[in-house]
Amino acid sequence: MVSLALDRVGARYGRRQILDDVSTPMIEGGALTALVGANAAGKSTLFRRIAGQLHGPGTVRLTGAGDDDLRYMPQDTAMSAALTVYESIILALKQGGGSWRLSAAELAAVDDVLRRFSVEHLAHRQLPELSGGQRQAVSVAQTLVTRPKVVLMDEPTSALDLYRQYEVLEALNRYAEDTGAVVILALHDLNQVMRACTTVMALAGGRILATGPTLEVLTPDLIGKLYGIDTRVERCSRGCPMMIVDGPSHTAATAS
Ligand SMILES: Nc1ncnc2c1ncn2[C@@H]1O[C@H](COP(=O)(O)OP(=O)(O)OP(=O)(O)O)[C@@H](O)[C@H]1O
């Protein structure tokens, strides 16, 4: 089983300290973990630090996976290359080098990821012709084609319609279950978090404010602290917990 833990991790841009002493318990693979926090709280910075794109104090401990097994999908992914979706996924698969030939297993991996994320019908479309939501779904497929054991995704559903949000989160959940991968998603939609993610890490002021099982961590009290918003949790007609937003509170302590 794959797991990831952070021990007193820090990060800065120039003199500006963004993350300070970020520590987490062991995050186990096989299910989705959400990273939540206000705008500018440092979620992308934490992903860059875990992915090795930024350096700083502290330790990122990976168990059952090496640095090569990690993929980070940033918030904005470039899709201007004159490639088809199919070609772009092959390119993502071959990014680590090796033979230019495609083995039967690699061809199967490309087919699998196209099917998992329902982008088969786009296989022969050019990347620059895709809509924003199509681009995002393709980007998820590119990220997962190598079957990474540690996956960090920055707002992977922000451009998707309601049905596609549900579909992509379900597919990500199945991916985590099938591969045992650690999959961490930065998400702003807390209803998506409640529906899809088993564990939550909440970031504020450059530190982890809370981490643990979703329904235990995402309390109205914590949400008030993170976003300055009053909320309550109710159940939808199918029994799924839902966050109802009542409005701004006056207890905000969000990151600068
Ligand atoms: N390349 C950079 N150089 C300098 N400062 C940066 C850089 N990238 C981000 N920052 C700053 O670091 C802080 C954290 O930004 P980050 O993108 O990590 O936040 P975030 O939680 O992902 O935000 P959002 O929810 O808005 O995407 C912000 O104050 C931002 O201005």
From TrEMBL:
Family matches, as SUPFAM superfamilies: P-loop containing nucleoside triphosphate hydrolases (SSF52540)
Keyword DNA repair: no
Stored CDD domains: ABC_Iron-Siderophores_B12_Hemin
Keywords for this protein: ATP-binding, Nucleotide-binding, Translocase, Transport
Entries under PROSITE patterns matching the protein: ABC_TRANSPORTER_1, ABC_TRANSPORTER_2
GO MF annotation: an example: ATP hydrolysis activity
ABC transporter domain sequence ranges: 4-230
UniProt xrefs under Gene3D superfamilies: P-loop containing nucleotide triphosphate hydrolases
Function according to Swiss-Prot or TrEMBL: Part of the ABC transporter complex HmuTUV involved in hemin import. Responsible for energy coupling to the transport system.
PANTHER family named among the record's database cross-references: HEMIN IMPORT ATP-BINDING PROTEIN HMUV (PTHR42794:SF1)
The name this protein goes by in its record: Putative iron ABC transporter ATP-binding protein
Organism: Sagittula stellata (strain ATCC 700073 / DSM 11524 / E-37)
Classification lineage: Bacteria, Pseudomonadati, Pseudomonadota, Alphaproteobacteria, Rhodobacterales
